[in-house]
């Protein structure tokens, strides 16, 4: 059978995944069409495409979720096929069906397969029929809160409450008692209706010590189906994946084979044609149960590409064009180890609140030597509030897990983002956590290790003295730079001081409780020897580096063996260093400067205890109190929507509302005043 490859495809998505699909399409000689909302007119995916069509205003329901507008864009540009990416319409059976009716090829499974697997209740019944392991639970839609609590009691706590049409962590709660079950049912129902237009809810047993393991499958229209090994996606925060890796450090070959065969059996049951993922929850005894099937390309697909050598987007396009798979199950490789970190625009030190704005600096590490960056942004571009928070995906490939971890740590250290906050410090901290390094984790890992959230002191520098030495080295280099550019009179040249005092708040996290470190710097043969005086002796760090003042990334070799990359900045009189997620703020002073610094008064921060301020940029969707109303601690005050998530602001203490300073519908900036208490 002869097939004809597409000449032009439209990518019905935005951001990183749109750029990713375009890269493969161009490699295959296929022209690409981008669609964009008014908020995305300057976006990277628009710039990379051969053609671009505006499909509506910023809200996704009026643009990226508009089937009519995307179909019309295909017709207007002559696109023969549509790749939906992930999210938006990627698992919308009506979109896939409409494409088929309009004579446009949907680069994904047939709409019947999407329909069968898109409904979690129906898919579980299909899995049972296909003899796929399933979790005990109630598989019918639940009507009332009372019924939900009764069913949860019957299954036995803990239980998982899930929206039938859910995904991406929305419409999902774990309940440990009747109160959790009642509140979780209402919350899931509301989230599901708002996000998916389908508020059906079901309940199943929550597996103890669970791992989230998924199997990548790939099928063609000729009846061929294979599985491409597993991915471990257990590192999650509030059911959102944070780090993914392939293979899993927990799965043995026998379990991999059993899970793969069950995944293929399920895919065959729905005549699956394209790339898809069958997700399982795996207990600590390696028992595994079907969760759901994602009938689309996954965010984490690059780790599978890294260990198999396959381009999954290319495979999807070829399958959609009618080609047979060019390989069999026995041909699937498992080469080395791969990891992916999702780099998101959120602030890990403020409970991961969304961070929007301009990317003042954006310099990802080079894509070489087993490092890959998939991104949809660029330096100077905007991170809008209307869509998800993903900035990029950082992927590494190593010969084994240890090498993959080291490559990822180095790449994270070199990933420069300024202008907005990102979760890079959190990712870096996870990568060096002993439990992660040992592969000893479950889906509860983050909640267990950071029960109070991720704070600046959640990770401490492995060697604070090394960072103090780097700060002194930076100060010395600044003085060298000044000497080089300043006018010098012969015989009266500037003499660079050799003795410094590094003042930091490393023990308390606050400069109000300073720690002083006496340091001496010597330069010989291009090596900066930094001596740190301590009560028990002198520590020496020999630093070799070509770093120049103004550079954000400091690459150095310390004591001829240790190669590091740190991000460094000078902020007024302070130096700011970040290494492996640890932040180090200090002043490098002369001995006299340190003496004067001790005499400086400490400026106290303003009292904001009676103010309610926006913790993030976003849309004020609800004000739940009135002026003069007495509120109690924990009471809901307002709701802010940002990056497709609704965030509730609650009272931290009892009080009376004295003034409301914003109104519903306002676009808020960080720290903008919303209300004031008496």
Characterise this structure:
The protein is of the alpha+beta class and 678 residues long. The protein folds into five domains: 8-107, 3-Layer(aba) Sandwich (Rossmann fold), CATH 3.40.50.20; 136-205, Dna Ligase, domain 1; 214-233 and 245-449, D-amino Acid Aminotransferase, Chain A, domain 1; 464-598, 2-Layer Sandwich (Glycoprotein, Type 4 Pilin); 611-677, RNA polymerase II/Efflux pump adaptor protein, barrel-sandwich hybrid domain (OB fold (Dihydrolipoamide Acetyltransferase, E2P)), CATH 2.40.50.100. The chain contains 17 helices and 39 strands. It has an eight-stranded antiparallel β-sheet with strand order 14-13-10-11-12-15-22-20, sandwiched between helices. Helix 1 (15-27) links the parallel strand 1 and strand 2 (31-36). Helix 4 packs antiparallel against helix 5 (111-118) and helix 12 (401-413) runs antiparallel to helix 13 (424-432). The longest helix is centred in the C-terminal third of the chain and has 22 residues, at 464-485. The protein is globular, with a radius of gyration of 28 Å. The termini are far apart. The mean pLDDT is 92.
């Amino acid at each position: 059978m002869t097939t004809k490859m597409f000449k032009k495809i439209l990518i019905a998505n935005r951001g990183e995944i749109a750029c990713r699909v375009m890269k493969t399409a161009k490699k295959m000689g296929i022209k690409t069409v981008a669609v964009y909302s008014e908020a995305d007119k300057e976006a990277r995916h628009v710039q990379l495409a051969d053609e671009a069509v505006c499909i509506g205003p910023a809200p996704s329901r009026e643009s990226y979720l508009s089937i009519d507008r995307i179909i019309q864009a295909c017709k207007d540009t002559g696109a023969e096929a549509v790749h939906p990416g992930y999210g938006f319409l990627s698992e919308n059976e009506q979109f896939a069906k409409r494409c088929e009716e309009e004579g446009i090829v949907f680069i994904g499974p047939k709409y019947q397969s999407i329909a069968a697997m898109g409904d979690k209740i129906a898919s579980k019944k299909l899995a049972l029929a296909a003899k796929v392991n399933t979790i005990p639970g109630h598989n019918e839609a639940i009507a009332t809160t009372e019924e939900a609590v009764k069913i949860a009691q019957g299954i036995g706590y803990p239980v998982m409450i899930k929206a039938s049409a859910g995904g991406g962590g929305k419409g999902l709660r774990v309940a440990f008692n009747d109160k959790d079950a009642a509140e979780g049912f209402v919350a899931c129902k509301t989230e599901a209706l708002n996000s998916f237009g389908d508020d059906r809810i079901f309940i199943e047993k929550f597996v103890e010590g669970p791992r989230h393991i998924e199997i990548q499958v790939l099928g063609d229209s000729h009846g061929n189906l294979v599985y491409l090994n597993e991915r471990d996606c257990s590192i999650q925060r509030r059911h959102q994946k944070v780090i993914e890796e392939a293979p899993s450090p927990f799965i043995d070959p026998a379990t991999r084979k059993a899970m793969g065969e069950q995944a293929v059996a399920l895919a065959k049951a729905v005549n699956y044609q394209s790339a898809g993922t069958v997700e399982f929850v795996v207990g600590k005894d390696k028992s595994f149960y079907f969760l759901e099937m994602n009938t689309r390309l996954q965010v984490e697909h690059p780790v599978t590409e890294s260990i198999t050598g396959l381009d999954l987007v290319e495979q999807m396009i070829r399958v959609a064009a009618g080609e047979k798979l060019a390989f069999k199950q026995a041909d699937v490789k498992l080469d080395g180890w791969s990891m992916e970190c999702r780099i998101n625009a959120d602030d890990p030190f403020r409970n991961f609140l969304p961070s929007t704005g301009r990317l003042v600096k954006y310099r990802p590490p080079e894509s070489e030597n087993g490092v890959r960056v998939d991104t949809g942004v660029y330096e100077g571009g905007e991170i809008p509030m209307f869509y998800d928070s993903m900035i990029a995906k950082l992927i590494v490939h190593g010969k084994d897990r240890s090498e993959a971890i080291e490559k990822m740590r180095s790449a994270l250290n070199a990933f420069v983002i300024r202008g907005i906050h990102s979760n890079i410090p959190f990712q870096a901290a996870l990568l060096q956590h002993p439990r992660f390094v040992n592969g000893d984790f479950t889906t509860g890992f983050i909640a267990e290790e950071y029960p109070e959230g991720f704070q600046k002191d959640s990770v401490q520098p492995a060697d604070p003295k090394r960072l103090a030495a780097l700060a002194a080295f930076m100060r010395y280099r600044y003085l060298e730079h000044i000497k080089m550019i300043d006018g010098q009179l012969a015989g009266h040249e500037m003499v660079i001081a050799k003795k410094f005092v590094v003042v930091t708040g490393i023990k308390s996290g606050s400069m109000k409780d300073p720690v002083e470190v006496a340091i001496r710097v010597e330069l010989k043969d291009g090596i900066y020897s930094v001596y740190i005086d301590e009560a028990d002796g002198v520590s020496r760090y020999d630093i070799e580096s070509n770093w120049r003042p103004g550079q954000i990334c400091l690459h150095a070799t310390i004591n001829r063996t240790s190669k590091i990359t740190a991000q460094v900045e000078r902020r007024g009189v302070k130096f700011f260093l970040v290494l492996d997620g640890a932040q180090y703020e200090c002043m490098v002073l002369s001995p006299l400067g340190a003496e004067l610094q001790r005499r400086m008064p400490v400026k106290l921060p303003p009292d904001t205890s009676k103010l309610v301020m926006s913790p993030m940029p976003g849309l004020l969707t609800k004000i739940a109190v009135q002026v003069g109303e007495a509120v109690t601690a924990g009471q809901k005050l307002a709701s802010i929507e940002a990056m497709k998530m609704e965030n509730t602001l609650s009272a931290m203490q009892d009080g009376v509302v004295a003034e409301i300073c914003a109104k519903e519908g306002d676009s808020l900036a960080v720290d903008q005043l919303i209300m004031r208490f008496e």
